[in-house]
Write a structure and sequence with these properties.
The chain is mainly α. Helices cover about 65% and strands about 0% of the residues. It is built from four helices and no strands.
Length: about 110
């Protein structure tokens, strides 16, 4: 069995000294370092994945009351969507049943 170097076995780790970063983002790596240092995703940033980071930071920066209101809003939206879906389903089912009944009546009339 050939001898292997420690570098071949263990993953590489990088230490980023974000405090020394000058806050000037010229590429996607700079944008990520800026976010790590400042916990802010600027609107001009284009690095992949930062939209999700921005959503998370927006939520994490909310007060307890804002989080409670937001969760309540999401719950109410979910209930509203469920109510609309159920109403559509029940309406379609009711329409199908009415249609069958009308069809049966018309069929009976045509027989006589």
């Amino acid at each position: 069995m050939p001898h292997r170097k420690v570098a071949d076995i263990f993953p590489k780790f990088y230490v980023l000294k974000v405090n020394d970063f000058n806050n000037i983002a010229v590429d996607s790596l700079d944008e990520r370092i800026y976010v790590l240092k400042n916990s802010i995703v600027e609107d001009s940033f284009k690095a992949q994945g930062l939209n999700k980071v921005k959503e998370i930071l927006n939520y994490e920066n909310m007060t307890v009351d804002e989080k409670t209101n937001y969760q309540s809003f999401l719950y109410n939206m979910s209930n509203a969507k469920s109510t609309i879906y159920t109403a559509k389903f029940e309406g379609k089912e009711e329409g199908r049943i009415d249609g069958e009944e009308i069809g049966i009546v018309k069929s009976e009339r045509q027989k006589h």
